[in-house]
Amino acid sequence: MHPDILRAYDIRGTFGKNLFEKDAVTLAHQFKTLLEEKTEDPLTILVGRDGRESSPILHKALTETFV
């Protein structure tokens, strides 16, 4: 994962340049692990996206990781 994409409160990158599908999978795994450590309740996670061409790819990578 490119270190420049991680910010204090968000993730910013250019898909195909410094942000890739594998980054979305890695972030989803880390986020899921963090949430599972905090609660025993079932998780409901909402993932939004915008109209960029990369959004369906990143959305799929994130949501399939949480299943």
Care to describe what's here?
With 67 residues, the protein is mainly α. Helices cover 45% and strands 0% of the residues. The protein is built from two helices and no strands. The protein has helices at 21-38, 55-66. Helix 1 (21-38) packs parallel to helix 2. It is globular, with a radius of gyration of 12 Å.
Brief rundown of the structure:
The chain has 67 residues and is mostly helical. 45% of the residues lie in helices and 0% in strands. The longest helix is centred in the middle third of the chain and has 18 residues, at 21-38.
Number of strands: 0
Question: How does the major sheet shape up?
Answer: none
First-last Cα distance: 22 Å
Elements, N to C (H/E): HH
Low-confidence regions: none
Oligomer state equals single chain
Query: How much of the residues is beta strand, in percent?
Result: under 5%
Helix content: 40-55%
What does the average pLDDT come to?
A: 90
Lay out the secondary structure.
Layout: H1 21-38, H2 55-66
Helix pairs in contact: 1-2
